[in-house]
Amino acid sequence: GEYVSCLLSLLRQMTDIHFQRLVENFQSKDELKEFLLKILCVFRNLMKLSIFPRDWNIMRLLTSNIILTTAQYLSPALHKNFTEAEFDFKVRHFNPSMPEWLDPHSSITPPSINAG
After folding, report:
1. Is 107 among the domain residues?
2. Where in the numbering of this chain does the Dedicator of cytokinesis TPR repeats region domain appear (predicted)?
3. Handedness of CA 66, 68, 72, 78 (dihedral sign)
């Protein structure tokens, strides 16, 4: 809980310049790829797990906003460095808005529809 709040606060305060400097400080594409995979895994977990109580709607919305903003800031680095290269994307094709049962790589079956 404490670490999540610190990470979210840090990311919320970062600007485009901060993200550009962060990306530029990686020594290799492999280091950058490892960082991007780790941050995407953290984001996936934040979206899947209930970090905050259900009645903390503002904090849950703020978390989603921070994830979206960070992804927008980091997307140029992803595009520039990995568009043509193979990016070992084993984060379940990171789509936090897609229910897990819609993921073609998931073993979870869709919920039954109760018509009535």
Report:
1. no
2. 1-91
3. positive
Tokens of 66: 């921070």
| Residue 4 token pair | 């999540």
Assigned domain for 98 exists:
yes
pLDDT recorded at residue 20: 93
- Alpha-carbon span 24 to 3, nearest angstrom: 25
Q: How far is CA 78 from the centre of its chain?
A: 13
Please answer whether residues 47 and 67 qualify as being in contact, where contact means their C-beta atoms are separated by less than 8 angstroms.
Answer: yes
Please tell me the total count of domains within the chain.
1
How many whole angstroms separate alpha carbon 107 and alpha carbon 8? 31
Within-domain flag for 116: no
For residue 91, the model assigns a pLDDT of 46
> What does DSSP assign to residue 32?
H
6, 9, 13, 18 alpha-carbon torsion, rounded to 10°: 40
Decide if 111 is inside a domain: no
Residue 72: both structure tokens together: 């927008």
